[in-house]
Design goal:
Helix content: 55-70%
Pfam families: Acid_phosphat_B
Organism: Salix purpurea (Purple osier willow)
Keywords: Signal
Largest sheet: none
Distance between the termini: 62 Å
Shape: extended
Number of helices: 5
Radius of gyration: 24 Å
Protein name: ACID PHOSPHATASE-LIKE PROTEIN
Order of helices and strands: HHHHH
InterPro entries: Acid_phosphat_B-like, HAD_sf
Length: 120
């Protein structure tokens, strides 16, 4: 009985180790669009950490996104949400009200900069 329990335990350990070693969520090494979409999401949520260039395998992905419908649609959606919020703000009218904007990608597009520098 002890030997069969040992074998069963060993089998379970190997099975669990194999399952754990293969992440449930994997960034595909073969499909750049999937990888780059995940990289973009992580970058936008500030989870990528410090980075100073777009990963080389994602340059064409970034170019396609920024010059295609995705960037325009995302920008329009964010602008719409911001306008909806702005309409709910009560202005005191005492001359001390102010709007503060993060200019970068809020009031000013970086698209010309990215295009000039090859989207990388």
């Amino acid at each position: 009985m002890a030997k069969s329990q040992l074998l069963l335990s060993l089998f379970l350990f190997i099975s669990i180790s194999e399952t754990i070693s293969q992440s449930i969520i994997q960034l595909s090494r073969d499909h750049d669009d999937v990888y780059c979409s995940s990289w973009r999401f992580s970058e936008e949520t500030n989870d990528v950490g410090y980075w100073d260039h777009v990963p080389s395998r994602c340059v064409s992905y970034v170019q396609d996104y920024m010059t295609g419908d995705g960037y325009r649609s995302d920008s329009e959606a964010v602008a719409s949400y911001a306008l909806d919020f702005a309409k709910t703000v009560e202005i005191a009218g005492d001359g001390k009200d102010a709007w503060v904007f993060d200019v970068d990608e809020t009031l000013l597009s970086n698209l010309p900069y990215y295009a000039l520098h090859g989207f990388g």
